[in-house]
Amino acid sequence: MAADKCVHGVPPSLSAKVVGSFAYLTIRDRLPTILTKVVDTIHRNKNKFFEEYGEEGIQAEKQTIGLLSKLRNELQTDKPVLALTDSLQDAESWNQYLQRHQGPQGDQDSVSWFQSPWLYVECYMYRRIQEALWLNPPISDYDVFNEAKTQSYFESQQAVMALCTYLGGVNKSKEELSKNQLLDTFNKLLKVSLWGNKCDLSISAGQKNSQKTSPLDSLSSLQPFILVDDSNLVWLTLISAQSQGLSGKITAGRVDIVLDNAGFELVSDLVLADFLISSGLVREVHFHGKCFPWFVSDVTANDFQWTIRQTMAANHMWMSKSGVRWQSYVKEGVWSYHDHPFWTQPHEFSDMAADAPDLYATLQGADLVLFKGDLNYRKLTGDRDWDHTAGFDTALRGFTPAPLCSLRTLKANVQVGLQPGQGEKLTSQEPDWMTSGKYAVIQFHSPKSEQ
Protein backbone atom coordinates (compact mmCIF):
# COMPACT_ATOMS: atom_id res chain seq x y z
CA MET A 1 0.00 0.00 0.00
CA ALA A 2 1.14 3.55 -0.76
CA ALA A 3 0.63 4.53 2.88
CA ASP A 4 3.34 2.21 4.16
CA LYS A 5 6.03 3.77 2.04
CA CYS A 6 6.04 6.96 4.00
CA VAL A 7 4.63 6.21 7.45
CA HIS A 8 7.99 6.85 9.09
CA GLY A 9 8.78 9.87 6.98
CA VAL A 10 5.46 11.67 7.35
CA PRO A 11 6.18 15.35 8.00
CA PRO A 12 4.49 17.24 10.87
CA SER A 13 1.17 19.05 10.48
CA LEU A 14 1.30 22.74 9.66
CA SER A 15 0.45 24.74 12.79
CA ALA A 16 0.48 28.24 14.31
CA LYS A 17 3.38 27.20 16.56
CA VAL A 18 5.63 28.69 13.88
CA VAL A 19 5.33 32.43 14.55
CA GLY A 20 4.97 34.39 11.31
CA SER A 21 3.84 31.35 9.29
CA PHE A 22 0.65 31.52 7.23
CA ALA A 23 -1.05 29.22 9.77
CA TYR A 24 -0.01 31.61 12.58
CA LEU A 25 -1.30 34.69 10.71
CA THR A 26 -4.56 32.88 9.86
CA ILE A 27 -5.24 32.02 13.50
CA ARG A 28 -4.01 35.34 14.86
CA ASP A 29 -5.74 37.64 12.32
CA ARG A 30 -8.07 36.01 9.81
CA LEU A 31 -10.13 33.71 12.06
CA PRO A 32 -10.95 36.42 14.66
CA THR A 33 -11.98 38.72 11.76
CA ILE A 34 -14.33 36.04 10.43
CA LEU A 35 -15.83 35.53 13.92
CA THR A 36 -16.32 39.29 14.33
CA LYS A 37 -18.18 39.38 10.98
CA VAL A 38 -20.38 36.45 12.08
CA VAL A 39 -21.28 38.29 15.31
CA ASP A 40 -22.06 41.47 13.31
CA THR A 41 -24.26 39.54 10.87
CA ILE A 42 -26.28 37.94 13.66
CA HIS A 43 -26.64 41.29 15.44
CA ARG A 44 -27.71 43.05 12.21
CA ASN A 45 -30.48 40.48 11.74
CA LYS A 46 -31.87 40.99 15.24
CA ASN A 47 -35.09 42.59 13.91
CA LYS A 48 -35.62 39.76 11.46
CA PHE A 49 -35.34 37.23 14.32
CA PHE A 50 -37.77 39.32 16.36
CA GLU A 51 -40.30 39.46 13.47
CA GLU A 52 -40.08 35.71 12.94
CA TYR A 53 -39.85 34.44 16.51
CA GLY A 54 -40.69 37.32 18.83
CA GLU A 55 -38.88 37.66 22.16
CA GLU A 56 -37.49 34.13 21.79
CA GLY A 57 -35.60 35.22 18.64
CA ILE A 58 -33.99 38.17 20.47
CA GLN A 59 -32.98 35.89 23.35
CA ALA A 60 -31.44 33.36 20.94
CA GLU A 61 -29.54 36.16 19.15
CA LYS A 62 -28.08 37.42 22.47
CA GLN A 63 -27.05 33.96 23.65
CA THR A 64 -25.51 33.00 20.31
CA ILE A 65 -23.44 36.20 20.26
CA GLY A 66 -22.37 35.47 23.84
CA LEU A 67 -21.09 32.01 22.87
CA LEU A 68 -19.30 33.36 19.78
CA SER A 69 -17.61 36.15 21.76
CA LYS A 70 -16.42 33.53 24.25
CA LEU A 71 -15.10 31.43 21.32
CA ARG A 72 -13.21 34.44 19.91
CA ASN A 73 -11.65 35.07 23.32
CA GLU A 74 -10.56 31.40 23.67
CA LEU A 75 -8.95 31.58 20.24
CA GLN A 76 -7.13 34.88 20.81
CA THR A 77 -5.75 33.82 24.20
CA ASP A 78 -4.64 30.35 22.99
CA LYS A 79 -6.93 28.46 25.38
CA PRO A 80 -7.33 24.67 25.25
CA VAL A 81 -9.80 23.39 22.65
CA LEU A 82 -13.05 22.32 24.38
CA ALA A 83 -15.29 19.32 23.74
CA LEU A 84 -18.56 20.03 21.90
CA THR A 85 -21.68 20.11 24.05
CA ASP A 86 -24.45 19.87 21.43
CA SER A 87 -26.11 16.55 20.66
CA LEU A 88 -25.66 16.57 16.89
CA GLN A 89 -24.76 13.35 15.13
CA ASP A 90 -21.13 14.35 14.55
CA ALA A 91 -20.40 15.70 18.07
CA GLU A 92 -19.19 12.37 19.37
CA SER A 93 -16.73 11.84 16.54
CA TRP A 94 -15.38 15.40 17.01
CA ASN A 95 -14.90 14.75 20.71
CA GLN A 96 -13.21 11.40 20.05
CA TYR A 97 -10.86 13.18 17.65
CA LEU A 98 -10.02 15.67 20.41
CA GLN A 99 -9.38 12.86 22.92
CA ARG A 100 -7.02 11.12 20.47
CA HIS A 101 -4.94 14.30 20.30
CA GLN A 102 -4.99 15.04 24.02
CA GLY A 103 -2.52 12.35 24.89
CA PRO A 104 -2.84 9.61 27.53
CA GLN A 105 -3.64 11.88 30.50
CA GLY A 106 -6.28 13.86 28.63
CA ASP A 107 -3.73 16.67 28.73
CA GLN A 108 -5.81 19.63 27.63
CA ASP A 109 -2.95 22.07 27.26
CA SER A 110 -1.50 20.04 24.42
CA VAL A 111 -4.53 20.88 22.24
CA SER A 112 -4.76 24.66 22.15
CA TRP A 113 -5.45 27.04 19.29
CA PHE A 114 -1.87 27.96 18.43
CA GLN A 115 -0.21 24.66 19.40
CA SER A 116 -2.45 22.21 17.48
CA PRO A 117 -2.60 21.32 13.78
CA TRP A 118 -3.91 24.32 11.84
CA LEU A 119 -6.30 22.17 9.79
CA TYR A 120 -7.91 20.86 12.98
CA VAL A 121 -8.43 24.19 14.77
CA GLU A 122 -9.67 25.98 11.65
CA CYS A 123 -12.28 23.26 11.01
CA TYR A 124 -13.10 23.27 14.72
CA MET A 125 -13.88 27.02 14.67
CA TYR A 126 -16.56 26.54 12.00
CA ARG A 127 -18.02 23.62 13.93
CA ARG A 128 -18.18 25.77 17.08
CA ILE A 129 -20.04 28.50 15.14
CA GLN A 130 -22.63 25.84 14.31
CA GLU A 131 -22.74 24.73 17.93
CA ALA A 132 -23.46 28.30 19.06
CA LEU A 133 -26.43 28.45 16.67
CA TRP A 134 -27.68 24.93 17.30
CA LEU A 135 -27.76 25.47 21.05
CA ASN A 136 -30.09 28.42 20.46
CA PRO A 137 -33.27 27.47 18.69
CA PRO A 138 -35.24 28.97 16.98
CA ILE A 139 -32.30 30.43 14.99
CA SER A 140 -30.45 27.09 14.80
CA ASP A 141 -30.75 26.81 11.01
CA TYR A 142 -29.64 30.35 10.25
CA ASP A 143 -26.78 30.46 7.71
CA VAL A 144 -24.49 33.24 8.97
CA PHE A 145 -22.60 33.25 5.64
CA ASN A 146 -25.63 33.34 3.35
CA GLU A 147 -25.55 37.11 2.72
CA ALA A 148 -21.90 36.98 1.64
CA LYS A 149 -22.51 34.00 -0.67
CA THR A 150 -25.57 35.64 -2.26
CA GLN A 151 -23.71 38.89 -2.81
CA SER A 152 -20.77 37.06 -4.39
CA TYR A 153 -23.16 35.33 -6.85
CA PHE A 154 -24.85 38.60 -7.91
CA GLU A 155 -21.55 40.47 -8.23
CA SER A 156 -20.32 37.80 -10.65
CA GLN A 157 -23.31 38.17 -13.02
CA GLN A 158 -21.29 39.40 -16.02
CA ALA A 159 -18.95 36.42 -15.78
CA VAL A 160 -21.88 34.00 -15.31
CA MET A 161 -23.61 35.42 -18.42
CA ALA A 162 -20.42 35.06 -20.47
CA LEU A 163 -19.96 31.47 -19.33
CA CYS A 164 -23.59 30.44 -19.99
CA THR A 165 -23.47 32.13 -23.41
CA TYR A 166 -20.32 30.17 -24.28
CA LEU A 167 -21.95 26.95 -23.05
CA GLY A 168 -25.07 27.69 -25.13
CA GLY A 169 -22.90 27.98 -28.25
CA VAL A 170 -21.13 24.71 -27.47
CA ASN A 171 -24.41 22.87 -26.88
CA LYS A 172 -25.88 24.21 -30.13
CA SER A 173 -23.01 22.83 -32.19
CA LYS A 174 -22.30 19.72 -30.11
CA GLU A 175 -23.28 17.32 -32.90
CA GLU A 176 -20.55 18.72 -35.16
CA LEU A 177 -17.73 18.85 -32.58
CA SER A 178 -14.70 16.82 -33.60
CA LYS A 179 -12.71 14.91 -30.98
CA ASN A 180 -10.14 17.74 -30.96
CA GLN A 181 -12.80 20.41 -30.46
CA LEU A 182 -14.30 18.35 -27.64
CA LEU A 183 -10.88 18.13 -26.00
CA ASP A 184 -10.32 21.87 -26.50
CA THR A 185 -13.68 22.73 -24.91
CA PHE A 186 -13.07 20.30 -22.07
CA ASN A 187 -9.68 21.91 -21.35
CA LYS A 188 -11.20 25.38 -21.36
CA LEU A 189 -14.03 24.53 -18.99
CA LEU A 190 -11.78 22.50 -16.68
CA LYS A 191 -9.55 25.58 -16.38
CA VAL A 192 -12.50 27.92 -15.85
CA SER A 193 -13.55 25.65 -12.99
CA LEU A 194 -9.95 25.70 -11.70
CA TRP A 195 -9.67 29.51 -11.73
CA GLY A 196 -13.20 29.83 -10.35
CA ASN A 197 -11.53 28.70 -7.13
CA LYS A 198 -10.01 32.18 -6.77
CA CYS A 199 -13.43 33.39 -5.56
CA ASP A 200 -13.04 32.27 -1.97
CA LEU A 201 -14.55 34.22 0.91
CA SER A 202 -12.67 32.53 3.75
CA ILE A 203 -9.27 33.53 2.32
CA SER A 204 -10.47 37.14 1.97
CA ALA A 205 -12.00 36.87 5.50
CA GLY A 206 -15.42 37.56 3.96
CA GLN A 207 -14.30 40.66 1.98
CA LYS A 208 -15.86 40.99 -1.48
CA ASN A 209 -14.40 38.37 -3.77
CA SER A 210 -16.23 37.82 -7.01
CA GLN A 211 -15.44 37.18 -10.66
CA LYS A 212 -16.07 40.39 -12.59
CA THR A 213 -14.93 39.53 -16.12
CA SER A 214 -15.32 36.55 -18.41
CA PRO A 215 -12.83 33.93 -17.22
CA LEU A 216 -12.64 32.52 -20.76
CA ASP A 217 -10.79 35.63 -21.94
CA SER A 218 -7.96 35.25 -19.46
CA LEU A 219 -7.21 31.51 -19.77
CA SER A 220 -4.14 31.86 -21.98
CA SER A 221 -2.62 34.60 -19.80
CA LEU A 222 -3.23 32.43 -16.69
CA GLN A 223 -1.68 29.27 -18.19
CA PRO A 224 1.92 30.07 -17.02
CA PHE A 225 0.65 30.14 -13.41
CA ILE A 226 -0.48 26.49 -13.48
CA LEU A 227 2.47 24.78 -11.76
CA VAL A 228 1.34 21.21 -12.45
CA ASP A 229 -1.04 20.54 -15.33
CA ASP A 230 -2.27 16.95 -15.56
CA SER A 231 -5.38 17.85 -17.58
CA ASN A 232 -4.41 15.36 -20.33
CA LEU A 233 -4.52 12.51 -17.77
CA VAL A 234 -7.97 13.67 -16.66
CA TRP A 235 -9.15 13.62 -20.30
CA LEU A 236 -7.69 10.14 -20.91
CA THR A 237 -9.44 8.86 -17.77
CA LEU A 238 -12.81 10.16 -19.05
CA ILE A 239 -12.27 8.62 -22.48
CA SER A 240 -11.18 5.25 -21.07
CA ALA A 241 -14.31 5.17 -18.82
CA GLN A 242 -16.45 4.99 -21.95
CA SER A 243 -17.34 1.45 -22.90
CA GLN A 244 -19.15 -0.10 -25.82
CA GLY A 245 -22.13 -2.26 -24.90
CA LEU A 246 -23.34 -5.31 -26.84
CA SER A 247 -25.68 -3.14 -28.88
CA GLY A 248 -22.69 -1.07 -29.99
CA LYS A 249 -23.97 1.86 -27.88
CA ILE A 250 -21.24 3.74 -26.03
CA THR A 251 -21.90 4.16 -22.30
CA ALA A 252 -19.98 6.84 -20.46
CA GLY A 253 -18.75 6.87 -16.88
CA ARG A 254 -19.61 8.77 -13.70
CA VAL A 255 -17.79 11.84 -12.42
CA ASP A 256 -18.00 13.02 -8.80
CA ILE A 257 -17.21 16.66 -7.97
CA VAL A 258 -16.32 17.45 -4.37
CA LEU A 259 -17.41 21.09 -4.30
CA ASP A 260 -15.74 24.06 -2.70
CA ASN A 261 -17.18 27.60 -2.88
CA ALA A 262 -20.67 28.83 -3.72
CA GLY A 263 -21.08 31.86 -6.01
CA PHE A 264 -19.11 32.01 -9.25
CA GLU A 265 -17.03 28.93 -8.51
CA LEU A 266 -20.13 26.75 -8.17
CA VAL A 267 -21.47 28.12 -11.49
CA SER A 268 -18.15 27.24 -13.15
CA ASP A 269 -18.47 23.69 -11.74
CA LEU A 270 -22.07 23.38 -12.99
CA VAL A 271 -21.05 24.59 -16.46
CA LEU A 272 -18.26 21.99 -16.59
CA ALA A 273 -20.68 19.27 -15.40
CA ASP A 274 -23.27 20.36 -18.00
CA PHE A 275 -20.70 20.09 -20.79
CA LEU A 276 -19.60 16.63 -19.58
CA ILE A 277 -23.21 15.41 -19.76
CA SER A 278 -24.37 17.19 -22.93
CA SER A 279 -21.26 16.12 -24.88
CA GLY A 280 -21.81 12.48 -23.88
CA LEU A 281 -18.39 12.32 -22.17
CA VAL A 282 -20.10 11.38 -18.90
CA ARG A 283 -23.31 9.55 -17.95
CA GLU A 284 -23.95 11.14 -14.54
CA VAL A 285 -22.43 13.64 -12.13
CA HIS A 286 -22.57 13.37 -8.34
CA PHE A 287 -21.90 16.62 -6.46
CA HIS A 288 -20.64 16.49 -2.86
CA GLY A 289 -21.20 19.50 -0.61
CA LYS A 290 -21.29 20.39 3.07
CA CYS A 291 -23.98 19.49 5.66
CA PHE A 292 -23.86 22.96 7.18
CA PRO A 293 -22.29 26.39 6.46
CA TRP A 294 -18.51 25.95 6.38
CA PHE A 295 -15.38 28.00 5.68
CA VAL A 296 -17.56 31.04 4.88
CA SER A 297 -18.41 30.28 1.26
CA ASP A 298 -18.57 26.48 0.93
CA VAL A 299 -21.57 25.00 -0.88
CA THR A 300 -24.49 23.55 1.12
CA ALA A 301 -27.58 21.81 -0.33
CA ASN A 302 -29.43 25.10 0.01
CA ASP A 303 -26.74 27.00 -1.98
CA PHE A 304 -26.77 24.32 -4.68
CA GLN A 305 -30.56 24.51 -5.17
CA TRP A 306 -30.66 28.31 -4.82
CA THR A 307 -27.98 28.78 -7.51
CA ILE A 308 -29.89 26.65 -10.00
CA ARG A 309 -33.16 28.51 -9.24
CA GLN A 310 -31.47 31.93 -9.58
CA THR A 311 -29.89 30.96 -12.88
CA MET A 312 -33.27 29.75 -14.17
CA ALA A 313 -34.93 33.01 -13.12
CA ALA A 314 -32.25 35.26 -14.67
CA ASN A 315 -33.36 37.84 -17.21
CA HIS A 316 -30.79 36.54 -19.70
CA MET A 317 -31.58 33.94 -22.34
CA TRP A 318 -28.47 31.75 -22.00
CA MET A 319 -28.43 31.92 -18.22
CA SER A 320 -32.06 30.91 -17.85
CA LYS A 321 -31.68 28.17 -20.49
CA SER A 322 -28.71 26.79 -18.54
CA GLY A 323 -30.65 26.93 -15.28
CA VAL A 324 -33.65 25.12 -16.80
CA ARG A 325 -31.36 22.39 -18.14
CA TRP A 326 -29.61 22.01 -14.78
CA GLN A 327 -32.95 21.68 -13.02
CA SER A 328 -33.96 18.93 -15.45
CA TYR A 329 -30.66 17.09 -14.88
CA VAL A 330 -31.44 17.10 -11.15
CA LYS A 331 -35.06 15.96 -11.72
CA GLU A 332 -33.94 13.13 -13.99
CA GLY A 333 -31.22 12.02 -11.56
CA VAL A 334 -28.46 12.71 -14.09
CA TRP A 335 -27.11 15.15 -11.50
CA SER A 336 -27.39 14.46 -7.78
CA TYR A 337 -26.29 16.35 -4.69
CA HIS A 338 -24.94 14.52 -1.64
CA ASP A 339 -23.53 15.56 1.70
CA HIS A 340 -21.83 13.57 4.45
CA PRO A 341 -20.62 14.55 7.95
CA PHE A 342 -17.07 13.54 7.04
CA TRP A 343 -16.65 16.61 4.79
CA THR A 344 -17.20 18.87 7.83
CA GLN A 345 -14.78 17.08 10.12
CA PRO A 346 -11.08 17.78 10.64
CA HIS A 347 -9.81 14.44 9.33
CA GLU A 348 -7.34 14.20 6.50
CA PHE A 349 -8.71 12.09 3.64
CA SER A 350 -6.30 9.22 4.32
CA ASP A 351 -8.56 8.56 7.37
CA MET A 352 -11.72 8.25 5.24
CA ALA A 353 -11.58 4.48 4.60
CA ALA A 354 -11.44 3.85 8.38
CA ASP A 355 -13.64 6.72 9.67
CA ALA A 356 -16.24 7.00 6.89
CA PRO A 357 -16.16 3.67 4.99
CA ASP A 358 -19.61 4.38 3.47
CA LEU A 359 -18.36 7.61 1.86
CA TYR A 360 -15.16 5.90 0.68
CA ALA A 361 -17.28 3.17 -0.95
CA THR A 362 -19.45 5.84 -2.61
CA LEU A 363 -16.39 7.50 -4.17
CA GLN A 364 -15.14 4.11 -5.35
CA GLY A 365 -18.20 4.02 -7.65
CA ALA A 366 -16.89 7.01 -9.64
CA ASP A 367 -14.68 6.82 -12.71
CA LEU A 368 -13.14 10.17 -11.75
CA VAL A 369 -13.36 12.36 -8.64
CA LEU A 370 -12.60 16.07 -8.98
CA PHE A 371 -11.64 17.73 -5.68
CA LYS A 372 -12.19 21.46 -5.86
CA GLY A 373 -10.19 24.00 -3.95
CA ASP A 374 -7.66 24.56 -1.26
CA LEU A 375 -9.24 22.94 1.80
CA ASN A 376 -9.76 19.70 -0.15
CA TYR A 377 -6.09 19.84 -1.19
CA ARG A 378 -5.02 20.38 2.42
CA LYS A 379 -7.06 17.33 3.44
CA LEU A 380 -5.78 15.24 0.50
CA THR A 381 -2.19 15.92 1.54
CA GLY A 382 -2.87 15.93 5.32
CA ASP A 383 -1.95 19.66 5.53
CA ARG A 384 1.62 18.68 6.35
CA ASP A 385 5.00 20.26 5.84
CA TRP A 386 5.84 18.15 2.77
CA ASP A 387 8.86 18.78 0.63
CA HIS A 388 7.67 20.37 -2.64
CA THR A 389 9.16 17.47 -4.62
CA ALA A 390 7.30 14.79 -2.61
CA GLY A 391 5.00 12.86 -4.95
CA PHE A 392 1.25 13.63 -4.89
CA ASP A 393 0.70 9.85 -4.49
CA THR A 394 3.04 9.84 -1.45
CA ALA A 395 1.18 12.75 0.19
CA LEU A 396 -2.20 11.01 -0.37
CA ARG A 397 -0.99 8.25 2.00
CA GLY A 398 -3.12 5.49 0.52
CA PHE A 399 -6.22 7.58 -0.22
CA THR A 400 -7.12 6.18 -3.66
CA PRO A 401 -10.84 5.40 -3.90
CA ALA A 402 -10.84 6.15 -7.67
CA PRO A 403 -8.82 8.16 -10.18
CA LEU A 404 -8.79 11.64 -8.65
CA CYS A 405 -7.79 15.15 -9.59
CA SER A 406 -7.29 18.23 -7.46
CA LEU A 407 -8.26 21.55 -9.07
CA ARG A 408 -6.82 24.13 -6.72
CA THR A 409 -5.54 27.69 -6.57
CA LEU A 410 -2.84 27.88 -3.89
CA LYS A 411 -3.92 29.55 -0.63
CA ALA A 412 -2.06 27.51 2.00
CA ASN A 413 1.54 26.47 2.70
CA VAL A 414 1.36 22.99 1.26
CA GLN A 415 2.29 21.98 -2.27
CA VAL A 416 3.67 18.66 -3.51
CA GLY A 417 4.54 17.15 -6.88
CA LEU A 418 6.79 19.97 -8.11
CA GLN A 419 9.98 19.58 -10.15
CA PRO A 420 13.32 19.82 -8.29
CA GLY A 421 14.15 23.50 -7.79
CA GLN A 422 10.69 24.76 -8.87
CA GLY A 423 9.57 25.60 -5.30
CA GLU A 424 12.87 27.29 -4.38
CA LYS A 425 12.79 29.43 -7.52
CA LEU A 426 9.22 30.55 -6.79
CA THR A 427 10.11 31.32 -3.16
CA SER A 428 13.03 33.52 -4.21
CA GLN A 429 10.86 35.40 -6.74
CA GLU A 430 7.60 35.59 -4.77
CA PRO A 431 7.80 34.62 -1.09
CA ASP A 432 3.97 34.36 -0.84
CA TRP A 433 3.47 32.16 -3.96
CA MET A 434 1.82 29.40 -1.90
CA THR A 435 -0.82 31.62 -0.33
CA SER A 436 -1.66 34.40 -2.80
CA GLY A 437 -4.16 32.45 -4.97
CA LYS A 438 -2.13 33.52 -8.03
CA TYR A 439 -0.81 30.00 -8.77
CA ALA A 440 -2.77 26.81 -9.38
CA VAL A 441 -2.45 23.07 -9.96
CA ILE A 442 -4.38 20.37 -11.81
CA GLN A 443 -2.95 17.32 -10.06
CA PHE A 444 -4.01 13.79 -10.94
CA HIS A 445 -3.53 10.40 -9.34
CA SER A 446 -4.96 7.01 -10.27
CA PRO A 447 -4.99 3.82 -8.18
CA LYS A 448 -4.02 2.03 -11.42
CA SER A 449 -0.64 3.77 -11.38
CA GLU A 450 0.17 2.06 -8.06
CA GLN A 451 -0.25 -1.46 -9.35
Q: Can you tell me about this structure?
A:
The chain is 49% helix and 10% strand. With 451 residues, the chain is α/β, with parallel strands linked by helices. The protein folds into 2 domains: 2-134, Up-down Bundle (Transcription Elongation Factor S-II, Chain A); 155-450, Uncharacterised protein PF01937, DUF89, domain 3 (Rossmann fold, 3-Layer(aba) Sandwich). A 7-stranded mixed β-sheet has the order 1-9-8-7-4-5-6. β4, α12 (264-278) and β5 form a beta-alpha-beta unit. The longest helix is centred in the first third of the chain and has 23 residues, at 22-44.
Topology:
Layout: H1 2-5, H2 22-44, H3 46-53, H4 55-76, H5 91-102, H6 118-134, H7 146-155, H8 157-172, H9 179-195, H10 219-222, E1 226-229, H11 231-240, E2 243-244, E3 250-251, E4 253-258, H12 264-278, E5 282-289, H13 301-313, H14 317-332, E6 335-339, H15 352-355, H16 357-364, E7 368-372, H17 373-380, H18 392-396, E8 404-409, H19 422-429, E9 440-445
Parallel strand pairs: 1-9, 4-5, 4-7, 5-6, 7-8
Antiparallel strand pairs: 2-3, 8-9
